[in-house]
Amino acid sequence: MSAHDQLFGAYIPGHSVIHRLPVGAKYLLVLAGTIPAFFTRSWIASLVLLACSVALLMLTRLPFGRAVGLGGGIWILVVILMAWNTFVGRPLDGVMNIATIVACIYLSRLLTLTTPAPVLVDALVAAARPLDRVGFNSERFGLSVALVLRSIPYLVSLSSDVRTAARARGLERNWFANLTPVVIGAVAYAQRTGDALVARGLGEDD
């Protein structure tokens, strides 16, 4: 499993109540959980949100590990946040921040695990289409979102491969050896993507 899929998840077909929800309802469900989390500065509210997000993921009937498992990077972040907040005398703030972050990850999985990426993009385009009347280009917006969804897994995988290669050469602490191949690979990927868009007439100004 790639680092990206380990964090956000990839679509898994199913027949659960969450799978059958309209994509718009799923987006509203995610927004209803994530937006208040950033304005309600309460560790109790954050834990309630986390519990609700886990319960919703259980409704997907997907394998427990795929639904709520967290990659090593998240656990490192959890330890660092908790250690820092404990050090400065605010352990409950650490609980609040960790619960909010994990809950937001879980809520995002409600979308990515139960809805194909093209459906997610089409829903965003449909929601943005009324803005076309004021000069907004919903189709280009959808294309941009699709490119982001496609690019993130590639860049995460590239970064992971570079770290693995550097570690095999004993260079895991050498930031130059870890950063340079990622930058070069990202630029090359962007160039290939741009060339493909131009070849299809999608990179030209209207």
Automatic annotation (TrEMBL):
Compartment(s) where it occurs, according to its Swiss-Prot or TrEMBL record: Membrane
Annotated CDD domains: EcfT
Pfam family, one: CbiQ
Entry keywords, A to Z: Membrane, Transmembrane, Transmembrane helix
Principal location listed in the UniProt entry: membrane
Membrane spanning residue stretches: 43-60, 67-88, 94-111
InterPro entries per the UniProt record, alphabetical: ABC/ECF_trnsptr_transmembrane (IPR003339)
Keyword Nucleus appears in the UniProt entry: no
Membrane topology, as annotated: Multi-pass membrane protein
Name of the protein this chain belongs to: Energy-coupling factor transporter transmembrane protein EcfT
